[in-house]
Amino acid sequence: MSLKELLNDVSDIIFPPQCLACAEIINPQENRIFCSFCAEKIHFITGSFCPVCGVPFPDSPAGSHVCGRCLKKRPYFTRARAVAVFEDVIMDTIHKFKYDRSISTGSGLSSFMADFSFPNFNFSEYSLIVPVPLHIKKLRERGFNQSLVLAREIGKKYRLPVNFSLLKRSKFTLTQTGLNKAEREKNIKGAFVVPDKKKVAGESIILIDDVYTTGATINECAKVLLRAGAKKTAVLTLARAIEKPV
Ligand SMILES: [Zn+2]
Ligand SMILES: [Zn+2]
Question: How many A from CA of 185 to the centre of ligand 2?
């Protein structure tokens, strides 16, 4: 046993790993971030979903198919995937990370996201990772950008560069909470800019965010990157809100 392994074992005895959601002690050998009780409540998006925007179709007898929204109007990104549905354990843990500023929760969630096998997603097709930026005012308030924390871990795992200054949020927008899809699109329009277009030209970009709600924010980011000369964009998020029927 190396000294590092020994120190890890000692630290596991003094500070045993806890479930990120309920703080239950987890066996360190299991190398998990949620206890089995909480893990069971997570709805991973691996079954039937729209191959474009990634919206899950729980128990759909039709299997995976392009959803009505994407048929009507294709988003600017080629595909979006998320680890799990934004509810319950996942929702609480993301809130803990963002609003309670829990660093250990952030680091647990980023490895959880980086370790997930996103279905029909090939990282070798991409050259760059860009986290969805926060406005400077929001960044000062929170102290960190949660999307950058997630993006760094994925960049490390797949050996892709992460650029957090390529896309900037120039307009301070009102919160998107409580707005419908059309209102969100209007609210977010013109909120992002690419200060140096040369850095985007010809790049295949993965956009990273914590939650995909209606897709209005991430679609606006994809649009701005494509107009600045990006070859293509895709989207990865930790969680995905289930859309209400339209
Ligand atoms: Zn738990
Ligand atoms: Zn879709």
Answer: 16
Nearest ligand to residue 41 Cα: 1
**Of 110, 6, 14, whose CA–CA distance to 25 is shortest?**
14
CA–CA separation, 50 and 57 (whole Å): 8
Q: Across residues 216-243, what is the average pLDDT?
A: 95
Q: Which two tokens stand for residue 50?
A: 């729209």
pTM for the predicted model, two decimal places: 0.90
- The strand pairing partners of 211, in sequence order, are 239
Q: What is the pLDDT of residues 108-149, one digit of tens each?
A: 999 999 999 999 999 999 999 999 999 888 899 999 999 999
Which CATH number is 43-240's, of 3.90.550, 3.40.50, 1.10.10, 1.25.10?
3.40.50
**Could you tell me the distance, in angstroms and rounded to a whole number, from the CA of residue 53 to the centre of ligand 2?**
4
Q: Where are the chain's structural domains?
A: 1-40, 43-240
CA pair distance 39, 19, nearest whole angstrom: 9
